[in-house]
Design brief:
Radius of gyration: 21 Å
GO molecular function: GTP binding; GTPase activity; metal ion binding; rRNA binding
Number of strands: 15
Order of helices and strands: EEEEEEEEHEHEHEHEEEEHHH
Family: Belongs to the TRAFAC class YlqF/YawG GTPase family. RsgA subfamily.
Distance between the termini: 52 Å
Pfam families: RsgA_GTPase (PF03193)
CATH topology of the largest domain: Rossmann fold
CATH class of the largest domain: Alpha Beta
Number of helices: 7
Structural class: alpha/beta
Enzyme class: hydrolase
Number of domains: 3
Protein name: Small ribosomal subunit biogenesis GTPase RsgA
Oligomer: single chain
Helix content: 10-25%
């Protein structure tokens, strides 16, 4: 094409090595990256050279205000960029993994992003057990919302206003149902739940950004079954447990890992039930994972 000037746009879909980009003039085009670069995510602001009327090459991305990602010992998976809020979607059925909830919370704290925990499908099954689990997180100061996206999405709407939010959670928790309820014209694929396996079937294969209004945006991410935190060091991990912060630096040893060391302020706080023992156990398990 003759016009080789850089165009500015927003990544609204991420399909592996190909990205959907919304240009500032409102057009949506399909893009690849220059070379082998694949470290982009929904929510990234990017600069593009058009190669055709509906295709382009991403040359660079702007500085991010935030980045949410997960990692194992070998690679990282970017989930969303420039978000101001994470909506962790849980459900009364299928049952949710509490360890996955904890890992999502830790990633959010480490990235400095606000959190809302949504317990969805409160019209189905017995919600008392799930609600009891979440009381611990409410006591820590996390906002917990109980609702049924199928019946009434209105409790969530005001919490999304003015934010770029990303929905995260296991498959089958109802993330796509939430997007459908908020944006009925988008026809997002809903997830079927296998009652035999008590787990969700993956239907969202790519992250996608939707505009709720001019100031509010929502990123629907693929369902998670794991959330590695190998990008955190031990110091970042311990600070990501918000209730640990008053006790950090008060152990006998400056390099205390809060595992077996004597006179550990965190372990003593857990013995006094000032810190929930299970949260300390989650920390110890993750710390050992990082130290291997």
């Amino acid at each position: 094409m003759k016009n080789q000037e850089l165009q500015h746009g927003l990544v609204i879909a991420a399909y592996g090595k190909r990205y959907g980009v919304e240009l500032d003039d409102g057009r949506e085009i399909s893009c690849v990256t220059r070379g082998k670069k694949t470290d982009l995510a929904c929510g990234d602001r990017v600069n593009i050279k058009l190669t055709d009327t509906a295709e382009g090459v991403i040359e660079s991305n702007d500085t991010r205000t935030s980045l949410l990602y997960r990692s194992n010992a070998f690679r990282s998976k970017l989930l969303a960029a420039n978000v101001t809020q994470i909506i962790i979607v849980l459900a009364t059925t299928p049952s949710f993994y509490e360890e996955l909830l904890n890992r999502c919370l830790l990633a959010a704290e480490a990235a400095g992003i606000e959190v809302v925990i949504v317990l969805n499908k409160c019209d189905l099954g017995d919600k008392q057990e799930a609600m009891a689990k979440l009381q611990r997180y409410e006591a820590l100061g996390y906002r917990v919302l109980h609702m049924s996206a199928h019946e009434d999405i209105s409790p969530l709407r005001p919490l999304l206003q003015g934010h770029t939010s990303v929905l995260v959670g296991q498959s089958g928790m109802g993330k796509s149902t939430i997007v459908n309820a908020l944006l009925p014209g988008q026809q997002v694929r809903t997830q079927e739940v296998s009652q035999v396996l008590d787990s969700g079937k993956h239907t969202t294969t790519a992250a996608h950004l939707y505009h709720l209004d001019a100031d509010s945006h929502l990123i629907d991410s693929p369902g998670l079954q794991e959330f590695g935190l190998h990008h955190l060091d031990i110091e970042a991990l311990e600070r990501a447990f918000i209730e640990f912060r008053p006790y950090l630096g008060k152990c006998r040893f400056n390099n205390c890992r809060h595992l077996q060391e004597p006179d550990c302020a965190l372990r003593e706080a857990a013995e006094r039930h000032e810190i929930h023992p299970e949260r300390l156990q989650y920390y110890q398990s993750m710390a050992q994972e990082l130290l291997r």
